[in-house]
Every structure is written in structure tokens, then in C-alpha cells.
Design goal:
CATH class of chain B: Mainly Alpha
Helix content of chain B: over 70%
Radius of gyration of chain A: 30 Å
Largest interface: A-B, 35 and 34 residues
Oligomer: heterodimer
Low-confidence stretches of chain A: 1-40, 59-79, 471-486
Largest sheet of chain B: none
Radius of gyration of chain B: 19 Å
CATH architecture of the largest domain in chain A: 2-Layer Sandwich
Order of helices and strands of chain B: HHHHHHHHH
CATH superfamily of the largest domain in chain A: Histidine kinase-like ATPase, C-terminal domain
Largest sheet of chain A: 6 strands, mixed
Shape of chain A: globular
Distance between the termini of chain A: 37 Å
CATH class of the largest domain in chain A: Alpha Beta
Mean pLDDT of chain B: 82
Number of strands of chain B: 0
Low-confidence stretches of chain B: 223-243
CATH topology of chain B: Methane Monooxygenase Hydroxylase, Chain G, domain 1
Number of helices of chain A: 17
Helix content of chain A: 40-55%
Shape of chain B: elongated
CATH superfamily of chain B: Phosphate transport system protein phou homolog 2, domain 2
Structural class of chain B: mainly alpha
Number of domains of chain A: 3
Number of domains of chain B: 1
CATH architecture of chain B: Up-down Bundle
Order of helices and strands of chain A: HHHHEEHHHEEEHHEHEEHEHHEEHHEEHH
Distance between the termini of chain B: 34 Å
Number of helices of chain B: 9
């Protein structure tokens, strides 16, 4: 598909080609200057410079092309040699990993006149806009960015802006704006966006980790130090006390180790929470695996595991299998902890649900009819657009919780007061880990509980699209084999 | 959207919507920044927010003036009329949202002078992020006239209320535990209320969108899983008085 730039294919195009060349030279030198001054890191500068150069050369090509071949632009045979170079530049811009936009404008106060004449693939995916013709304002509303674009369009000044976008997954963006043409009546502006979430997240994560770790490790550490002092002091020669204290110390040390493990695992998950997984995994098979592994614990606790799963192959999700295992394991582990002996523990998997169905409750359930019970969404995906989901639901017959606790369950180290989680006390991070994993998978999580009526956790993940069958191969197979998989 | 029969009128409508969108962007940034300055105790940012509110008021007046002018001169009917009126309604809603953000910023200035209450400001931050994302979703929906997304925002207000209830309880516990925190906690409580109101404005935007596109109101009540909660909800005493 050849690209159409309305503002470039007007009769004044010939005049502008020199403008475009100048703009390119100017932009490249500005970027180079910034890089030398250490204002931009080198890689970014190179990328931006490459984009600017490519754009300028491409714009020059576009504008130098004589008018007749522009109208016949749809015909690739019109100018094969030129077309090839031009396509290469178009492709280069199109396939840049960073979102890139070109805005054009007429009058400064004409808001509807500011339009995007080009958006590359990354920008279209991020901002959900068409390749050209979108209103600038429908793509970007951030006032700082709009000001920077205005400055580039009407003042001919380049600039950079950083900002954070909200939503389920926070992202930090840095935006470079560069004027592409010096003419006042209809100017062009290059907008290059760069995702800086990794760097910022690393920073914040370190601070959070330190705060959490130092706070939570202090308690077991204090108890360890206390026992060491006692063992050095009056309990030195008391055989019985020594054994008992060493036992407690081992438990505390164990708890510290588990805490550090969980904190590290949480940090790792949070680090790439904004990058969706690209693998596939079968939810039924995963649940079966986890239940097999937890079988011995269930037997010791005299809890009956009651899986209710569709056949393997029916509930495929887009997922990182190891992380889904962690989700199911944490949920079942939690349920096991609170289940009394002799109780049933149900694990249900369902597939091909709309978002509403995946997050719908049975209104007649005792957890909802109880005056102190209720349901709470802990996480819901940003946008659905007819996406189908597979859900895994874990239902226990434990003591349950009052509604007011539900909202805070996924907070780190939140404890429901007056509740004992048994001899193997948790780290308080299990559900936080579950929430962050599900968020990375663009799924949802909700809970339903009432005192005395148990708890029910449901996590849902986007369902994998069926793999398209290779048609020619199927045609050669016997008819009964072709129909078998369905 | 297809081309308007009268091109100049179509252009004017697009222009009006663009102005509303720009105002929405500014208000959105105000809300996000307001939450940020509570969480980070950022005095400079808070003062910037208070200053920028004047601009929002100016934008609201401008949009209103243009819309009234269009109604007077073009006498629009059907969808044209709804689009004009919707722009005006949006401007009112956004202006009030901006006021709430300004009020949060002012309170954060007072909070910054007292002892930090980290766990509480974290709770406010969580609620603030949620509310900001609701506002963003509803403005996204309005910008591209996507009814389905608007409806999703309208439907999900319950979560904001839950956060408010939870924050309310937490603040009570703090105030009972240590009376010295009462003045800070009271300000945080009002901030929670401001955020809750912003959440309501986000649902209003979804309603305006529905009106603009279809001319109808969204039918029925919002789903509530816990109607019994309403009776003991701390939000109740003030629910009716600041419409």
C-alpha cells in the first residue's frame, strides 16, 4: 500500500522538498547536539536521528516525484526503481519499534485542523488510531505533549516531554517533538515516543523492595537475635531449652527465606508486568499438574480436592505457563491453608466466556446472601473488545471473611485480623503475586466470601485464538480425520 | 463519522468536540497530578495545579459560549443539537472535576506540613489511580464515540465506592488509635470524597456520551452486588447534598 500524505501531495510540493531537506539536516544536528551535551542517551539519539533522516529523505522523495506518478501511485510498475527505495523508507518508518507520528496543522487555534498524517504500526497499536487522518487530539490529550507539538509546529522548536499513562499497567513515556518544515502555513511535526517504563519501574521497584524487605524482615530477625542472646546467656547449659529455641530459630529463618523468595518473585513479575506474555498454555492441564503436586498436602490435611475441568485442549490461554502455575498454586495453597479437615476444595475451569460471564456471581450463593458477605473485584482488564476468557475458580469451605476485608486482600502483607492461617504461616504476598501475574496476562481477578461460608477466588485469562489450520494439507487428508478434531 | 451535509457546520462541531477533548486532557492531567502530589508530598506540583485551574474555568466558559452561539445561529436539530448540548454538558462536568482536583491539591499543601501517614496516603494513591483510569477510559470513549467502552465505565463505578468505604474505615481506625492524626486524617477523608466525586463525574461523562449518540439515557440502575451495604455505607449521609 503506498502512503498518502495529503499535505505533501499538493501543488506546492516542489517548493517544500528543499524545506524537508533543511528540516532533516536541522533536526539531525539538533539531536546530535543534544547527544553531545549528554541531554539524550546515545542510543535514543541514534534512533531519533535515524528516524528523522529516514523521514526527511522519504519526504524529499515523495515531493520530488512528479505529479503524474503520484496519481498513478497505486500502480507499482510506474516507477520501479524509485518505488523500491521509497518502499524501503516507508517500511523502515512503519516497522520502527517505537511509536512514531507525523502531525500537520494549519492555523494555531484551529484544533480540528491538527491531524496526524502518518502513524506507524507501533503508534497505531498503542493509540488505536488509523494510519492517517486521525485528529491529533483523539490520539493524544496530554496538555504537556500538545504544547510541545504546538511549539514544534508553530515555533519551530524541538522539545522532549516525559509523562505517565494511567490504566491497569502504568507506563512512562518520553516524547520527542521535532519540526519537519519551516513553512508557516502548513507545518509538519515529528512525534517520536519512547517507552521508558523499564527504567522508571526499576527505580521504583528497588525503593519498594527495600522498604518492604526491611520492614518485614525485622520481626523474624528480632526474634532470632533474642534467642541467640538467650542461648548465650542463661539457657547456655539447658539442653531442653536449647533444642526448643533452635527449633523456633529454624522456623524463623525459614520464614525469612520464604519472604525473600516471594519478594524477589514479586519484583521480577512487576518488572515485566507491562509486557504481555506470548506463549500458550492449557489451563486444564496446568490445573491438573498443580493438583497432582499438592495432592500429598491435601491428604495430610484431610481435604478432598474436587477438580471440575473441561477436556484438555478446550481451555487454551495466552500465557506464561510457569506464571499460571504460580497463580493456581497460590490460590489452591491458600484454600488448603484455611480448609478444615474433611472439607471439599473445588477447582473449576471454564472456557470461552465473555468478560461479563467470567466475572459474574451466582446471586443465590450463601456468600452473597449473608449480611456480612459480598464480592469484590480485585483486578479487571482495561479493554475487552469482545475478547473471550478462560477462568479458573477455587472454592473452599474455610472460615471465610467479611466483605470489608475483600478489597485489601491483594495488598502486600495485608492480614485479615483474627485469622490464623495454620502452622505454616504465609508471607502475606501470595495474593499480591497472583494479582500481578494476572495483570500481566491482561486478565481479571475477583473474590467472593462471607464469614462461615468459605471463600471463592476466580482468575480469568484471555483465551488463545484457535491456530489457523493449514488448508492445503487438510485437503489431502481423509475426510474422517479432518472432522475428528472438532 | 460520515461527512456533515453542511461542511462548515460539521467543521464547527468537530472543532467544538476537539476543544472539549483538549479540556478533558487538561483535567485528566490535573487529577493524575493531584494524586501524585498527595502521594509524593510535592508542594510545587500542588501549586501548579491550583494555578492551572483558572485555565480550565476559562476553557469551560469558551466552550459554553461557542455552543450557545452555535445553537443561536445554526439552530441545530437532532444529533447536531445533541452534540452541541453534550459539549456544553461535558464542559460543566469537566470543570467540576477540575475543581475537585484543585481541592485535593490544596489539601495536599496542608498535609505536607504535618507528619507523613504513609499507609494512608498509599490507600489514597490506589484509589486515585483507579479513579484517574476511570476518567481516562470515559474520555477515551467520548473522544472516539465508543458506546461500549462508555458503558463499561458506567458499570464499574462500584469499585470506586468500595475503595472509598475501605479508606473511610481505615481512617476511622487511625483517628481512634491516635487523636494527634485527626486533622491530617480529616483532610485525607475529604480527599477520598473528592476522588469519589471524580469517579461520579467519569460515569456522568459516559452518560453524556450515551445521550449524544443515541439521545437516550442509560436505562436502569447500576448493578450493585451488595445492596445491604448501602444502608451502612459511610458515603450515605453526604450522597444527596452535593449534586
Amino acid at each position: 500500500m503506498p502512503m498518502r500524505l495529503p499535505t505533501l501531495s499538493d501543488p506546492a510540493a516542489g517548493h517544500r522538498s528543499s524545506g524537508a531537506a533543511w528540516a532533516t539536516a536541522g533536526a539531525v544536528s539538533i539531536l546530535a547536539g543534544l547527544a553531545v551535551l549528554g541531554r539524550l542517551d546515545m542510543a535514543t539519539a541514534c534512533l531519533a536521528a535515524a528516524a528523522t533522516t529516514g523521514l526527511g529523505v522519504w519526504a524529499a522523495w515523495r515531493t520530488r516525484t512528479p505529479a503524474p506518478s503520484q496519481t498513478a501511485g497505486d500502480d507499482p510498475s510506474a516507477a520501479p526503481a524509485q518505488g523500491a527505495t521509497q518502499t524501503a523508507f516507508e517500511d523502515a518508518l512503519e516497522n520502527l519499534p517505537d511509536p512514531l507520528l507525523i502531525a500537520s496543522a494549519g492555523e494555531p487555534d484551529d484544533l480540528a485542523g491538527k491531524r496526524l498524517v502518518f502513524a506507524n504500526a507501533a503508534a497505531r497499536a498503542l493509540l488505536r488510531i488509523p494510519r492517517d487522518g486521525a485528529l491529533l487530539l483523539s490520539a493524544i490529550r496530554r496538555p504537556e505533549v500538545l504544547e510541545a507539538v504546538d511549539e514544534a509546529l508553530f515555533g519551530g522548536v524541538s522539545g522532549t516531554v516525559s509523562f505517565e499513562t494511567g490504566g491497569a499497567q502504568d507506563r512512562f513515556w518520553r516524547i520527542w517533538t521535532t519540526p519537519l518544515s519551516g513553512r508557516a502555513d502548513s507545518s509538519l511535526c515529528l512525534i517520536l515516543m519512547r517507552d521508558e517504563t523499564d527504567a522508571r519501574r526499576n527505580e521504583r521497584m528497588r525503593a519498594d523492595f527495600l522498604a518492604n524487605a526491611s520492614h518485614e524482615l525485622r520481626t523474624p530477625l528480632a526474634s532470632l537475635t533474642g534467642f541467640i542472646e538467650t542461648l548465650r546467656g542463661h539457657a547456655r547449659d539447658d539442653e531442653g531449652a536449647r533444642e526448643r529455641f533452635l527449633g523456633i530459630m529454624a522456623v524463623q529463618a525459614d520464614r525469612m527465606a520464604r519472604l525473600v523468595d516471594d519478594l524477589m518473585s514479586l519484583s521480577r513479575i512487576e518488572l515485566n508486568e507491562h509486557i504481555p506474555p506470548d506463549g500458550r498454555c492449557d489451563l486444564s492441564v496446568t490445573v491438573t499438574d498443580v493438583l497432582d503436586a499438592l495432592g500429598p498436602i491435601a491428604t495430610t490435611k484431610q481435604v478432598r480436592l474436587r477438580p471440575d475441568l473441561p477436556a484438555p485442549g478446550k481451555a487454551e490461554i495466552v500465557a506464561d505457563r510457569d506464571q499460571v502455575i504460580q497463580v493456581v498454586q497460590n490460590l489452591v495453597d491458600n484454600a488448603l491453608k484455611y480448609s478444615p479437615p474433611g472439607a471439599d476444595l473445588k477447582v473449576i475451569v471454564r472456557s470461552s466466556l465473555k468478560k461479563d460471564a467470567a466475572s459474574a456471581s451466582d446471586l443465590a450463593s450463601p456468600r452473597l446472601t449473608s449480611p456480612d458477605g459480598g464480592r469484590q473485584s480485585l483486578l479487571s482488564p482495561d479493554r475487552t473488545d469482545g475478547e473471550l476468557y478462560c477462568m479458573v475458580r477455587v472454592v473452599d469451605q474455610g472460615p471465610g471473611m467479611a466483605k470489608r476485608h475483600l478489597l485489601r486482600l491483594a495488598e502486600r502483607f495485608y492480614r485479615v485480623e483474627g485469622q490464623k492461617s495454620g502452622e505454616r504461616s504465609g508471607t502475606g504476598l501470595g495474593l499480591a503475586i497472583v494479582k500481578h501475574i494476572v495483570n500481566r496476562h491482561r486478565g481479571g481477578l475477583w473474590v467472593e466470601s462471607a464469614p462461615g461460608a468459605g471463600a471463592q477466588f476466580t482468575a480469568y485469562f484471555p483465551q488463545a485464538k484457535p491456530v489457523p489450520q493449514a488448508q492445503p494439507d487438510l485437503g489431502r487428508l481423509e475426510p474422517d480425520i479432518v472432522t475428528k478434531p472438532s | 463519522m460520515s461527512e456533515h451535509t453542511l461542511k462548515f457546520f460539521g467543521d464547527e462541531l468537530t472543532q467544538l468536540k476537539a476543544e472539549v477533548t483538549r479540556m478533558g486532557g487538561l483535567v485528566e492531567a490535573q487529577v493524575e497530578d493531584a494524586v501524585e502530589c498527595v502521594a509524593r508530598r510535592d508542594v510545587d506540583l500542588a501549586q501548579t495545579i491550583v494555578g492551572r485551574d483558572l485555565k480550565i474555568d476559562e476553557m469551560q466558559r469558551e466552550i459554553e459560549r461557542k455552543a450557545i452561539r452555535m445553537i443561536a445561529l445554526r439552530q441545530p436539530v437532532a444529533q447536531d443539537l445533541r452534540r452541541t448540548v453534550a459539549a456544553m454538558k461535558m464542559a460543566w462536568n469537566l470543570e467540576r472535576t477540575g475543581d475537585q482536583a484543585k481541592s485535593i491539591a490544596k489539601r495536599s499543601l496542608i498535609l505536607a506540613t504535618s507528619e507523613p501517614l504513609t499507609p494512608l496516603t498509599r490507600a489514597v494513591e490506589r484509589m486515585g489511580k483507579l479513579v484517574a483510569s476511570r476518567l481516562k477510559e470515559s474520555l477515551d470513549a467520548y473522544t472516539i464515540a465508543d458506546l461500549e467502552r462508555g458503558f463499561a465505565v458506567w458499570n464499574a463505578d462500584e469499585e470506586v465506592d468500595e475503595h472509598y468505604d475501605s479508606l473511610f474505615r481505615e481512617l476511622l481506625t487511625y483517628m481512634m488509635g491516635d487523636p494527634r492524626t485527626i486533622s491530617s486524617c480529616a483532610h485525607l477523608l475529604f480527599i477520598g470524597k473528592n476522588l469519589e466525586r471524580i469517579g461520579d463525574h467519569a460515569t456522568n461523562i459516559a452518560e453524556i456520551l450515551q445521550y449524544e449518540v443515541t439521545g437516550e439515557e442509560i436505562a436502569g440502575d447500576r448493578p450493585r452486588w451488595s445492596s445491604h451495604m448501602a444502608a451502612e455505607s459511610p458515603a450515605d449521609p453526604t450522597a444527596g447534598d452535593d449534586q
